[in-house]
Design brief:
single chain; alpha/beta; six-stranded parallel β-sheet; binds dicarbonimidic diamide; hydrolase activity; Isochorismatase-like_hydrls; Isochorismatase
């Protein structure tokens, strides 16, 4: 894997999704399923930073007045708390709140780009696409949560925009193990319909 032509994208590794008491848990999910991603992703981040690979983080979240959160999203499901409600880590999925930020273990380093996104995909209503263009990369190594939602949406759209995407299997996760497995298979089916997948060990070996 030649350096200089790809970026590492870390999707939504936020307290609201990964920590007990956050939004993910209020939806009835077992957050430990997502926390499995932390250790391999830490290793991938460290090696990528050491190799000079640009790292871009995203955070799902909304403006404090929720003007960027359509009713269809706000009212969906039956969580005990909704987006914008006060929670133990601040207002749920609201930008600037403690819970909306990235977990300490994977905190961005100074200079790394962080995009807040109101949707599931990283491109919608963000500067993510412009940032990729400015970096001049044509390939993305994609990690984060959840595999079948924000990772998939981002990879599908990146594929449409002409980026080759490699999704690191053990650096993505889902509250639903069967969705995780199937979502990964969907990416690389039919000869790589949206992209490719590999374990982080292969990525680390290629970087070394
Ligand atoms: C979800 C995400 N699942 N980051 N967000 O609502 O995948």
């Amino acid at each position: 894997m030649s350096e200089g032509d790809f970026a590492l994208v870390v999707i939504d590794m936020q307290r609201d999704f990964l920590e007990p008491g956050g939004f993910g848990e209020t939806l009835g999910n077992d957050v430990s399923l997502l926390r499995r991603v932390i250790a391999p992703l830490r290793a991938v981040l460290a090696a990528s930073r050491a190799a000079g690979v640009p790292v871009i983080h995203t955070r799902e979240g909304h403006l404090p007045d929720l003007s960027d959160c359509p009713p269809a999203k706000l009212l969906r499901g039956a969580p005990s708390k909704r987006i914008g409600d006060p929670g133990p880590m601040g207002r749920i999925l609201v930008r600037g709140e403690y819970g909306q930020d990235i977990i300490d273990e994977l905190a961005p380093t100074p200079g790394e780009l962080v995009f807040d996104k109101p949707g599931k995909g990283a491109f919608h209503a963000t500067g993510f696409g412009d940032a990729l263009a400015a970096l001049g990369v044509s390939r993305l190594v994609v990690t984060g949560v959840t595999t079948e939602v924000c990772v998939h949406t981002t990879v599908r759209e990146a594929n449409d925009r002409g980026y080759d995407c490699l999704v690191l299997e053990d650096c993505t996760g889902s509250y639903f193990p069967e969705f995780h497995r199937t979502a990964l298979r969907m990416i690389s089916a039919q000869g790589g319909i949206f992209g490719w997948t590999a374990g982080s060990a292969a990525y680390l070996q290629a970087l070394a």
